[in-house]
Amino acid sequence: MNYLTIPLDSSRNKNKFSCGKSALDNYLHKQASQDIKRKLSVCFILPDINNTIIGFYTLSNDSIPQKNLPEEIKKKLPESYTNLPVTLLGRLAVDNKFRGQRFGELLLLDALKRCNDVSDKSIASMAVVVDPIDEDAVSFYKKYGFIELPDSKRMFLPMKTISKLFK
Q1: Which domains does the chain have, with CATH numbers?
Q2: Segments of the chain with pLDDT less than 50
Q3: Whether the predicted model's global pTM rises above the 0.85 cut
């Protein structure tokens, strides 16, 4: 289990991070450490050799109503599960200084690997879910196979699909 990212800790200079989206910048600057302490999410960072934060993502547990899934997935699941366990990839951002160097893809793959490893060994999760912040984010996740959930702004990638990436 080799990951590129490390958990965010207080030794990191978060205030220099800027991805150009104030909600994501403010989250890292002001809220991430509190969410970690409250066990609401875990924040992983990708530092460069100078300990500058290239990018980050957050993970937490979540569930989605089975009724929101596309029919082709729903029909393979037992009806007794009204809510299904998923992992929420809550935020993912790359600093503007590192844009265009595929660090977003690297962070996404790192997050999916973590989700897959945990789902295989510790806590069941049938998919990774994202809440895209804008149309750029929707396009990004679509490029990597995420499927839009009907009647929702959420997107998901089944764990069966993710596990094939790491075999």
Answers
A1: 6-165 (3.40.630.30)
A2: none
A3: yes
